[in-house]
Amino acid sequence: MTAWTAMAVSYFLLPGPGAQLANPLAPVNVNYVYGLSDASAQTWMPGWAWFGLLLVALPVVILLPTHLFLCRFASRAAGRAGNIAG
Questions:
Q1: The pTM is what?
Q2: What is the phi/psi pair of residue 75, to 5°?
Q3: pLDDT higher than threshold 80 for residue 83
């Protein structure tokens, strides 16, 4: 849910790639919601489709596997640390 909120804020409220900003060091294309370049938006699919793909792919491909990996191995490490301290 946090990732979706951050991507939605980046897509709807923050400047896209190639935007002319008063501060040249200000970030553009935050979270890569317009494509993988800071200079221009991706062109091989509509912007809304890219955004939708990110909303589905990021949780399924990156966040869920990372969560499952950490749940499995972090709980083992915490169990071992508890045995050592106790």
A1: 0.71
A2: -70, -35
A3: no
